[in-house]
Amino acid sequence: MQQADGKLLARIAAQFAESAKLKQQAAVVLGEPIAKAGRMLAESLKGGGKVMACGNGGSAADAQHFAAELVNRFEQERPPLAGVALTTDSSNLTSIANDYAWEQVFSKQVRALGRKGDVLLAISTSGNSKNVLEALPVAHDLGVRVIALTGNGGGKMAAQLKGDDVHICVPHKQTARIQEVHLLVLHCLCDAIDFQLFGTKQ
How far is it, in rounded angstroms, from Cα 11 to Cα 116? Predict the structure, then answer.
């Protein structure tokens, strides 16, 4: 197999370096909101609540990843926790989009499933995803607290958040870099939940 040329290797090295640099910067800026979100999630789950997660594209994959870590496990053996990805039911998604509008695919599910004390994890790299935005006022109406996971200044989502909500906004504009930090944030939240509810064996 032909070896990669120097220019390609340099691009790859630059991607790693930029991602690492951003993660170090984000650790300083995002530590407190991540901790606050972790406390909110642990409190909800301990009280019998659930976490609903939503997003589009890569953020949909992140929502499903996070829900799976709750229901199955993260890094230690522990009881399953209530996590629901609102991105996975194709019949719900397509019927709502077909009968009403794509913008309502998450808000209708939150209206049906959300209860006071639950948490909505709303993921959007731009903060401007219309179907995610429409879920926020529904969550507020029901007494469901919101954790917004965004980037690029938070977009329109930042203005919709209430006093009890948590905004975790990655300080970057590039989608790929924001998504890389989002995954790390989700793992931090999983670890925070397990640490608070079950202690740690590490």
Answer: 48
For domain 30-198, give the CATH number: 3.40.50.10490
pLDDT in tens, 160-179: 999 999 999 999 999 999 99
- For residues 112-119, give the mean pLDDT: 98
Helices (H), ranges, 88-174: 90-99, 107-113, 130-142, 157-160
With contact defined as beta carbons under 8 Å apart, do 3 and 12 qualify? Answer: no
Per-residue pLDDT, 61: 98
So where are the chain's domains? 30-198
Is 79 exposed, middle or buried, given 0-12, 13-18 or 19+ CB atoms closer than 10 A? exposed
d(Cα 22, Cα 80) in Å, to the nearest integer?
Answer: 33
Distance separating alpha carbons of residues 94 and 76, to the nearest angstrom:
36
- What's CA 31's distance to the chain center, in Å? 15
Of all helices (H) and strands (E), which one includes residue 192?
A: helix 175-198
Find out whether 144 and 116 touch, Cβ atoms under 8 Å.
yes
Please give the mean pLDDT across all residues of the chain: 96
Q: What is the pTM of this model?
A: 0.95
Strands (E), the chain: 51-54, 83-85, 119-123, 145-151, 166-170
Q: Identify the three-state secondary structure at position 202.
A: coil
What's the rounded mean pLDDT across residues 21-26? 97
